[in-house]
Amino acid sequence: PSPLLEVKDLKVHFPIKSGFFGRNTNVVKAIDGVNFHIFENETFGLVGESGCGKSTTGKAILRLINSTDGEILFQGKEISKLPHKEMRPIYRDIQLIFQDPYASLNPRKTAGDLIEEPMIVNTDFSPEQRKRRVHELLEVVGLSAYHASRYPHEFSGGQRQRIGIAKALSLNPKLIIADEAVSALDVSIQSQVLNLLRQLQRDFGLTYLFISHDLSVVKHISDRIGVMYLGKMVEQGSKKSLYENPLHPYTQALFSAAPCINHDKKRERIVLKGDLPNPINPPKGCPFHPRCFVKMAECETVTPELRYAGDGHYVACHLYK
Ligand code: SF4
Ligand code: MG
């Protein structure tokens, strides 16, 4: 099958002023050559520390940020350079669920208004049809028609995220980009919302790009996972192959800190030295080399490419050639 979404060598670079009176201009490489694809009905998890470029990747796909280079193919069609007018049908097909349900919902609008909004602009439904659809959507996300006249502050965090999901579903999208969609919720509510998302995926044939810094969340929901570090994809593979056999030293460290799937297989905790380097002045060679515990001489000068390592598994590290 051909992928629903393909991201090829995507780059987002932007200039920033620094130094005395902002006299110097530096280029931040927020994303510096990211590659991945997502098949229909699949959940692709994008994981990494805050500032690694995963949100920027999601925003670039939705054209909320302009990419500097590379390609974004949606259903085989290049969309990264389309005029915004021609993006309209694509904006229906790709929807975003935000991090903080509180911040993303207008407090002066009822849940019904919020869910209805995208339909006013993008469909020719009559007011009655829209109202019926709002009630339908509320039920689909586990709320009820009664909630249509309530305001965001009257809902719990989990309920607000359900409203956000209903709104995202209102135009029958194909792809949903969820950026830290459950990160603001309590753990017990998180799993309810994740289960809802999986149910909706089955019922409506949805495809997810699931972005999170939280490995346990990504593990719960993803079929395949990509690991990002300093604007680059450093490893990618099926959930199983990544968890059972993480290849990149960064992935090994990241996964060693997260609870194991099968507890019989004990994993030694790898603690990384140092902080995430400054993206304005990233390290030469492998971006991970200042923190890598198996670094070799060439790692300081040669940047490793993302290469196929068998079994649907890709890695960017000189240890694997
Ligand atoms: Fe470590 Fe070198 Fe691999 Fe980078 S390329 S992760 S520095 S071994
Ligand atoms: Mg983010």
From TrEMBL:
The UniProt keywords, alphabetically, are:
ATP-binding, Nucleotide-binding, Transport
Quote any Pfam family the record assigns. Answer: ABC_tran
The protein's name in its UniProt record = Dipeptide ABC transporter ATP-binding protein
Q: Which residue range or ranges hold the ABC transporter domain? A: 5-255
Q: Under the GO molecular function aspect, what terms does this record hold?
A: ATP binding; ATP hydrolysis activity
What's this protein's family per the entry? Belongs to the ABC transporter superfamily.
Q: Which InterPro entries match?
A: AAA+_ATPase, ABC_transp_ATP-bind, ABC_transporter-like_ATP-bd, ABC_transporter-like_CS, Oligopep_ABC_C, P-loop_NTPase
Q: State any GO BP term from the record.
A: transmembrane transport
